[in-house]
Amino acid sequence: MYESNDKQPALLWVFVGLAAAFLVRSVWLRAQEELKIRRHGGHSPKMWPWDPFGLFFTYSITAHARRDENIKFMWNCFRDLASDKNQNPQTFEVRMVGQRYVMTADQENIKAMLALQFDDFGKGPRFQRDWGKLMGQSIFVSDGQRWHNSRQRLRPMFARQRISDLQCFERHVQALLPIIDGGKTIDIKNLFSRFAMDAAADFSMGIELDSLHNKNSEYFDAQERVRHIQSLIERAGPLNWLIPRLQFNADLRTIDKFMEPTLMKALADADSEKPLTSDGKYTFVQECLEVSRDPQFLRDEIRTILIAGRDTTATTLAWVFYELACHPEVVADLRREIAANIGMDREPTYEDLKNVKILSYILNETLRIYPVAPFNVRAALKDTSLPRGGGPDGNGPVGIPAGTTVVYSTHLLHLNPDLYPSCGPDFPPLQEFYPRRWQNWTPKPWSYIPFHGGPRICLGQQFALMEMSYVLVRVFQRFSRLEVEKGLGSPPAYDPRGWARAGKTPGLPEVYANLKPQMASEITLAPRHPIHVTFFR
């Protein structure tokens, strides 16, 4: 008993020593970081500097994210800083569980990361760790030479001759049209998620998934859950190790089980001259085999294209048809151009879609207001700086030591009034959906980047735009108007009072949020609730 009592003070001193060592190490690391920040510029405005470990910020952003209010939260952070006229309100920094994060919506900083200082920034080890289980070592998560090799391998697969073959889209549109016919009210969020998944499975692997009709698709449900859990992992930041992953791992096995037979068959057939599908068309997996027969490379890239290819199309089409249901004059305008350039019966060609200018206006306007990825990240791969946001006036460089995470917001960038011309008859307020503004207006460089920019600009950009244009033409060749359901069952709108702050004049965030369906930023910017629309001939 006496021996046990003697050990207790010794054990206490061990804990005290470890705590002291941790504190000394933390102070030393913070001092080294501070030297690097000052060597390369300075600090950007600090959000809540009284919270040195960022525990309150971490709690606040997580709580808002759980309510799908992370966009509102970030907007208000920038606005709070903008109240100080000596600070640049487009960039600030915070601590999250002790780690420094820089937040920016400044076009100069975004341009620097994505283009001018491309070699200084990448996805980084933290992002690769958080996304590696889902995306492996695919082009989406890799850096350096591995990323460059993947980019060069995949680029030919999105060449014009590949994306101008529109039969893949036609097959799935023909499955879609009967579902929306007959005056039925349809949840377009779910509808286009299933449509886009079917098209992605067909394009990537030549598989007829048919989730449009098979409402109990195990694969569809698994991918939905994976997206949700991955978004939780992303939102939780340094605390994402607390997110349970049992269901996540089970769903990844379901996705791999779905892909495996096709991948194995393609590998087994790879010795033949041209491994074709039964209809003579190439698939993405067969194109991948032209550059590598590594099974893990194939799994990583196919899984990435299945998820990324589906999400971009699904969310954007849901927003497009929601806005068109609210703007019958735009539908009438679109149908006039379709009739004049294509006709109301025949299948459009690649050239036809390019000639119907209002298609690009509608898609550009939708992606301006509802960018697919409202937030994205880069990590500093070496000690560097961002060109703007530091110093007393907010116009100096911001020091960025290696390993620092920079979060940039395409959404806030697109809704920055300083980047737009004055309002007028041909240019309504920037928060309004008005496709014709694109007829005589070109955005300032790096003020509109729905597919990002620089060397990592989305390879599938033109493919996605062609797919969505094709759907719009085929749907409005048959239907003349849409109606979004109001009242019971309609998507809850943001209450602008919830965005307003006491004693403050309502600003752009309140105006933007007024009467829009709730938005959920789960990797992509999607409607939070079903949106019910009726199609009329």
UniProtKB/TrEMBL annotation:
- Principal location: membrane
* Top-level division of the source organism's lineage: Eukaryota
The record lists the lineage as:
Eukaryota, Fungi, Dikarya, Ascomycota, Pezizomycotina
UniProt entry keywords in alphabetical sequence:
Heme, Iron, Membrane, Metal-binding, Monooxygenase, Oxidoreductase, Transmembrane, Transmembrane helix
User: Which SUPFAM superfamilies does the protein's record reference?
Assistant: Cytochrome P450
Show the Pfam families listed in the entry: p450 (PF00067)
Quote the subcellular location field of this record: Membrane
Instruction: Please give the GO cellular component terms listed in this UniProt entry.
Output: membrane
Q: Which PANTHER family match?
A: P450, PUTATIVE (EUROFUNG)-RELATED
Q: Which organism is it from?
A: Colletotrichum plurivorum
Question: Would you identify the family this protein belongs to, as annotated?
Answer: Belongs to the cytochrome P450 family.
UniProt-listed PROSITE patterns: CYTOCHROME_P450
Cofactor(s) required for function per UniProt: heme
Put simply, this protein is called Cytochrome p450 52a11
Molecular function (GO) terms for this protein are: heme binding; iron ion binding; monooxygenase activity; oxidoreductase activity, acting on paired donors, with incorporation or reduction of molecular oxygen
| InterPro entries according to UniProt | Cyt_P450, Cyt_P450_CS, Cyt_P450_E_CYP52_fungi, Cyt_P450_E_grp-I, Cyt_P450_sf
Provide the binding site for heme.
C458
Q: How does it sit in the membrane?
A: Single-pass membrane protein
